[in-house]
Write a structure and sequence with these properties.
The structure holds 2 protein chains of 2 kinds. Chain A has 6 helices and 11 strands. By secondary structure, chain A is an alpha+beta fold. Chain A has a 5-stranded mixed β-sheet. In chain A, strand 3 (98-101) and strand 4 (105-108) form a beta hairpin. Helix content of chain B is 36%, strand content 15%. The radius of gyration of chain B is 23 Å and the shape is globular. The chains are: A alpha+beta, B alpha/beta. At the A-B interface, strand 4, helix 2 and strand 8 of A face strand 8, helix 10, helix 13, helix 14 and helix 15 of B. The complex binds iron/sulfur cluster (3 copies) and FE2/S2 (inorganic) cluster. Chain B: InterPro entries: Nuo51_FMN-bd (IPR011538), Nuo51_FMN-bd_sf (IPR037225), Nuop51_4Fe4S-bd (IPR019575), Nuop51_4Fe4S-bd_sf (IPR037207).
Chain lengths: 319, 524
């Protein structure tokens, strides 16, 4: 499934001024080296007009920040945007946050830098059509079974769909049992249901940039793009996960859910659960003894790298 | 490293074109060299006209004989004839200035070599005529002065000249496709950090082969202009980025880089690197990702673009070889010609239902209809797809060859004109391109990744009897306006232009009928 392009060169003799922490050097998250958001000079502010109202925001702000300061004429979803942690996003992939600017046309507000003097409108036909179509496109690839979903009631996709008055997504929803990806139920800590993933990349950044664990990555391209593991494992149990849970915390959908919560918010319908909602489930190959939160793979990785076990490293079956 | 033997100068010379899609060249070269010790036999690059390959030229005293589709037996005879002081007897013989630095083109009337007379040959002038990596040949064509030498002395003049000329970027994967290039030069110069210059020649669409042609046949013209650009923006590195599969282009670019370094102080190193043979790898930010050694290619978020945040975050000026070739023309103080809004020439590769593809050059004030003389099309022309894989479909080639003209006609500007005859179904053609978008996209953004899926589904619905033109237009609009990169922005163009120009065919398919008779899955 992984589409590693092995012929990719690394330009040998070109200076790379970007700092790399020795710890993150080997992390291969499969995502682009995106530019930072701010382009305004530091310590400056930008004053712009949103739906006729003037707003002043700080230098590193985006148009979304500016719209949030005002009472916009239309609802701007901004589904994939995450503003609780600087290390995460803006990924700007869902394109549900489009607004119209006089200067640059229709742009994604979550990542577009707020420049002094800009004129922004949230209520033009072009912008609202773009937001609606993109939200429906997301839903077209989503296994919309909220009643059995562990995130029911605390799901950002659900929230924006309700808020945006989605009654019937124009392209339908993903509902083809043959094409479902099996549910990864192998880890005792986190369950993965890729049929609900919107590829917002938050989990990847939480895992790589915040926890510096280097477990998760984006792999594949086109319709095969999916969340995978950097050690090429097929299941969570075979990955190098330490079960810190950060990925599940930041996930806006029911794609990553803590095991204890997979059925927490479901509507009790006899015999119908998240686990059997798509038919196929991957369990751990053998119920390996797992005394700590780190997977056996993480343990192997530690002993292979020949570092003497530290006090806080959990015991594994090899020890 | 010694600079390769040149082809320009006095005395008889035999030119053997090596490159392009034919592999007989090296064999002919060996045979020619084995047959003589006295006559100069020089390997040159391809001309862009595939129907002529393998092409051999014999020149003596200001006359050149063209021998298309040359065989080993022919080449031996040619060499021997030249050794005896005369020229072979061929259909196309052209008289020219003995020191000519550009290929003298046979008049359009002369049989098969007529393709060389279509349009103009300005940036293509050295192709098939000068030894690709010979600095001596190249210097002669520039009155002995390299553009890079002049740029060292007066870098600002380079920028001014390019700005005054209002040169626009050409092709996909350029940092300023269809826009004036001096803007990105200014931004790169004004941004903190040491700039980099990238020559982006990675193009997996086999029909869009003009960049490959330039690197295989006239790499010095590209590299010299790239070096001059590097001086103008005060860059420390020049990188040439090609497809992994394009070994000859890379080899010639490397030879040319080495020859340039040997000729002058290599104060700015030129490195030649290969990226994946994937269509996405040519997109400008995915090109940078590939060069940085990322394990998976994905387009970068923008703004800011590469001019501010490029290779390893450094300000980066990225252009295609086609753009650099135009920069070279502007710096050589040539009158660029064409329309003032988009001066110079554009390279077009004519492909599709034709005998052999041909890359030709049209001034921007010419019309696309001129390309018809470059190829033989079986049957009548029904549809042209202009602009590459995600070009626009049209029946009418009476369109100006300028950026504004092409855009105005809702066609693409990636320098490809595919001609299709009456048997081609435009609904199926648009469907194939939509399917390609669905399969090849990088997977990053929703309008492109999910939009291309729904685009294919809506076209399937047409075959099932339902033509939802409003839905199709709305989806295409959203993909165009909201996708991150040009891939998604252009992916729906074949569909929308087909709907505009061939609407009755969509309705016919919804009624269960394929007017061109080529779709047999139409349900009734
Ligand atoms: S992730 Fe779960 S709760 Fe959220 S929309 Fe999908 S099915 Fe519903
Ligand atoms: S698993 Fe969740 S956090 Fe990760 S990409 Fe998918 S939706 Fe985003
Ligand atoms: S437009 Fe397509 S190819 Fe470009 S970033 Fe978006 S998903 Fe990737
Ligand atoms: S929130 Fe802006 S693109 Fe997703």
């Amino acid at each position: 499934m992984s589409t590693d392009q092995s012929s990719t060169p690394r330009v040998p003799d070109v200076e790379n001024p970007q700092p790399t922490m020795p710890l993150t050097e080997d992390i291969r998250p499969g995502t682009a080296n995106d530019p930072p958001v701010e382009t305004v000079e530091p310590d400056r502010t930008a004053t712009l007009t949103v739906d006729g109202e003037s707003v002043t925001v700080s230098a590193e702000s985006t148009l979304l920040d500016a719209t949030e300061e005002t009472d916009t004429d239309d609802y701007v979803p901004a589904l994939c945007s995450y503003d609780e942690h600087d290390e995460i996003g803006p990924r700007s992939e869902c394109r549900t946050c489009m607004v119209e600017t006089e200067e640059h046309g229709v742009v994604p507000s979550c990542s577009f830098p707020a420049q002094d003097g800009m004129t922004v409108r949230t209520d033009t036909t072009e912008a609202s059509e773009a937001r609606d179509v993109n939200l429906d496109l997301l839903l077209s690839n989503h296994n919309l079974r909220c009643t059995t979903c562990g995130k029911n009631g605390r799901c950002e996709l659900q929230d924006v769909s309700i808020e945006n008055d989605v009654v019937e997504p124009r392209y339908g929803v993903f509902d083809d049992r043959d094409a479902y990806e099996p549910l990864d139920d192998s880890s005792p800590f986190i369950q993965i249901d890729r049929n609900k993933c919107i590829l917002c990349n938050r989990c990847v950044e939480a895992c790589n940039d915040v926890q510096v664990e280097g477990v998760l990555r984006i792999e594949g391209s086109g319709e095969d793009t999916r969340i995978g593991f950097q050690n090429d494992a097929e299941t969570m149990m075979d990955s190098t996960c330490v079960s810190c849970g950060h990925c599940a915390t930041v996930c806006p959908t029911g794609a990553l859910v803590e095991q204890g919560l997979t059925d927490a918010a479901t509507i009790p319908l006899p015999g119908f659960t998240q686990e059997n909602s798509i038919g196929k489930t991957v369990e751990a190959e053998n119920d390996r003894f797992q005394p700590g939160p780190a997977t056996p793979m993480k343990g192997d990785q530690k002993s292979e790298s020949a570092a003497e076990p530290t006090a806080e490293s959990p015991p594994t079956e090899d020890d | 490293m010694a600079t390769p033997k040149g082809a320009i100068g006095n005395g008889p010379v035999v030119r053997v074109a090596i490159g392009g899609d034919h592999d007989a060249g090296p064999e002919l070269l060996r045979a020619a060299r084995d047959a003589t010790e006295d006559v100069r036999v020089v390997a040159v690059g391809p001309t862009g006209a595939d129907s002529l390959a393998p092409l051999v030229l014999a020149t003596q005293n200001g006359t050149t004989a063209f021998v298309p589709q040359c065989t080993v037996a022919n080449v031996t005879t040619i060499v021997e004839t030249l050794e005896n002081g005369s020229l072979p007897d061929t259909a196309a013989t052209v008289e020219h200035d003995p020191g000519a630095t550009s290929m003298p083109t046979p008049p359009a009337a002369i049989d098969t070599t007529a393709v060389l007379g279509v349009g103009s040959r300005r940036v293509l002038g050295g192709c098939g005529w000068r030894a690709p990596a010979s600095v001596a040949d190249y210097r002669v064509s520039r009155d002995d002065e390299l553009l890079a030498e002049r740029a060292i002395d007066d870098p600002d003049a380079v920028h001014e000249r390019v700005a005054d000329a209002a040169l626009r970027g050409r092709g996909r994967g350029d940092g300023s496709t269809d826009a004036p290039i001096s803007g990105v030069w200014t931004t790169a110069t004004e941004t903190d950090g040491k700039p980099v210059v990238v020559v982006n020649a990675n193009e997996a669409d086999d029909h869009a082969r003009a960049d490959r042609l330039l690197l295989e046949s006239a790499p010095l013209a590209v590299l010299d202009a790239a070096l001059a650009t590097a001086h103008a923006v005060d860059a420390t590195d020049v990188l040439v980025y090609t497809n992994d599969a394009e070994a000859l282009a890379r080899e010639r670019a490397q030879e040319a880089a080495d020859a340039l370094a040997a000729d002058r102080d290599p104060d700015i190193p030129i490195q030649v690197v290969a990226g994946p043979d994937a269509y996405t790898a040519g997109e400008m930010t995915m090109a940078l990702e590939a060069m940085e050694g990322n394990d998976r290619l994905e387009a970068r978020r923008r703004p800011p673009g590469p001019d501010q945040y490029g290779l390893y975050g450094r300000p980066t000026v990225i252009h295609t070889p086609r753009t650099f070739a135009q920069v070279g023309q502007a710096l050589a103080d040539n009158d660029l010609g064409g329309v003032p809004g988009d001066p110079g020439t554009r390279l077009f590769t004519v492909a599709g239902d034709v005998d052999a593809p041909a890359t030709i050059e049209l001034p921007t004030d010419a019309t696309l209809a001129d390309v018809r003389g470059a190829v033989a099309l079986d049957g009548g022309l029904k549809t042209a797809c202009v602009g590459g894989r995600f070009g626009g479909l049209t029946r009418d080639l009476d369109v100006p060859a300028s950026a504004a003209g092409l855009r105005g006609a809702r066609l693409g500007t990636n320098g490809v004109i595919e001609l299709f005859d009456e048997s081609t179904c435009t609904v199926a053609l648009a469907g194939q391109r939509a399917k390609l978008a669905r399969e090849e996209n990088c997977g990053r953004c929703v309008p492109c990744r999910e939009g291309s899926k729904q685009l294919v589904e809506l076209l399937r619905d047409v075959y099932d009897g339902e033509y939802q033109d409003g839905m199709l237009r709305e989806l295409a609009r959203t993909m165009r306006e909201t996708s991150t990169c040009e891939f998604g922005q252009e992916a729906s163009r074949p569909v929308t232009t087909a709907m505009e120009s061939f609407e009755p065919e969509f309705r016919a398919h919804a009624d269960g009928r394929c007017p061109s008779g080529s779709c047999d899955h139409v349900s009734s």
